[in-house]
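[step 3/7] fold_predict: job queued, chain A
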Amino acid sequence: REGPLPVTPDPGNHGVTSVFLKAGQHLGFPVIDPSGPEQIGFSRTEYTIKNGERWHTARAYLAPVTNRINLHVVTGATVLKVIMNGEKRAVGVKFLYHGKVKKVSARREVLLSAGALSSPKLLMLSGIGHRLHLQEHGVKVVTDLPGVGQNLQDHMCLYGLSWNLPRLSENNILGAIDPAMLSNYVHHRS
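[step 4/7] structure written:
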C-alpha cells in the first residue's frame, strides 16, 4: 500500500467495468484484490499513476538515486549467471554486453530481480537449485536447493482482449477525448 511506486485503483465510476465484474461473478468467480493472496478471479484495474502521470519502476526507484557514485546502470546487457563465493554468498554477476562477456563484483550485496521465470533460471545457471536437475544439464552444483524453479507464479493480467460494444452515452467512455476531462488533467492533475 505504500512505497515509491504508487498504486492507484480504478475509481470504478464507469459502467463497463461493473458489467465485466458482474459477468465474472455470474460465472462463479470472485471479485479480487489483484495484489492480494487470492489471484483467481476478476478485478478492477490498478494503475501506477502519480499526479495524473504514468509512473514506472525506473522513475520511482532509479531516478531518485541516479547521482550515487556506487550505482552503475547498464542497458542492453544479458545476465548469464550470479558469481558465488562458496555456497551462500553472491559476490557479483557475469553478463553479456555488446558481444563480450564481462564480470562485475559487489562489495555488499547482489540483488536478483529478473521476474518469476528468469530469476530461478539465473539461480539454476549459477548452480543453485535441485542437485539432480542441475547435474542433468551439466551445471556445477553450488547449493542443492530443490525449491528453486518450483511453484512459479506471476500476476496474469489480460489487457489485450477486445469486445465490440454498442455505443454508450455514459461519460462518452468509448474513446473520444472529452475536452472537460483534458482540462481537468491540465489544471488539477486528475
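[step 5/7] annotate
Strands lie at 8-9, 46-47, 49-50, 53-54, 78-84, 90-97, 100-105, 128-129, 143-144.
The first strand starts at residue 8 and ends at 9.
exit 0
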